């Protein structure tokens, strides 16, 4: 009887896993659409690591709201930075966005 219960629990866990994968797939698709939409200029056009896309979008919008003009996203060739912007007397400042998982 215990083996049957354990099998049922495993199937229930797997079904829950599939539900989460479906939600993630929908969110991933939505991010892909937003990345291609011209109205979302604060979201990088490329990037398959969606946590990075989220982090870059927040920082880009923050810098824009702080009055930094001429913001520019890096592309896949720029491994050392994510966003370039004029900064003080320097010709360019750069931002490297790192996103870590944490609990609030």
Fold blueprint:
Blueprint (H helix, E strand, L loop, with lengths): L1 H35 L13 H16 L6 E2 L9 E5 L2 E6 L9
Antiparallel strand pairs: 1-2, 2-3
Features:
104 residues, alpha+beta, 3-stranded antiparallel β-sheet
Structure, explained:
This protein has a 3-stranded antiparallel β-sheet, with no helix packed on it. The protein is elongated. 49% of the residues lie in helices and 12% in strands. It has helices spanning 2-36, 50-65; strands at residues 72-73, 83-87, 90-95. It folds into 2 domains: 1-36; 42-104, no CATH class. The protein is of the alpha+beta class and 104 residues long. The mean pLDDT is 79. It is built from 2 helices and 3 strands; from the N terminus they run H-H-E-E-E.
Number of helices: 2
What characterizes the major β-sheet? 3 strands, antiparallel
Mean pLDDT metric: 79
Poorly predicted tracts of residues: none
Number of strands: 3
Strands of the largest sheet, in order across it?
1-2-3
Cα separation of the termini: 41 Å
Q: H/E order of the elements?
A: HHEEE
Strand content: 5-15%
Query: Over the alpha carbons, how many angstroms does the gyration radius reach?
Result: 20 Å
The percentage helix is 40-55%
How would the global form be characterised?
A: elongated
The structure class reads alpha+beta
In total, the number of domains comes to 2
What is the oligomeric state here? single chain
What does this entry show, briefly?
This protein is an alpha+beta fold.
């Amino acid at each position: 009887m215990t083996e049957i219960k354990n099998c049922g629990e495993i199937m229930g866990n797997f079904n829950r896993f599939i539900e989460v994968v479906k939600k993630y797939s929908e969110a991933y698709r939505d991010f892909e659409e937003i990345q291609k939409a011209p109205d979302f200029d604060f979201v990088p056009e490329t990037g398959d690591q969606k946590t990075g896309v989220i982090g870059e979008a927040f920082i880009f919008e923050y810098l824009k709201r702080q009055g930094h003009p001429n913001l520019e996203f890096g592309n896949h060739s720029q491994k050392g930075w994510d966003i370039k912007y004029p900064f003080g007397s320097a010709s360019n400042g750069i931002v490297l966005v790192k996103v870590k998982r944490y609990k609030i």
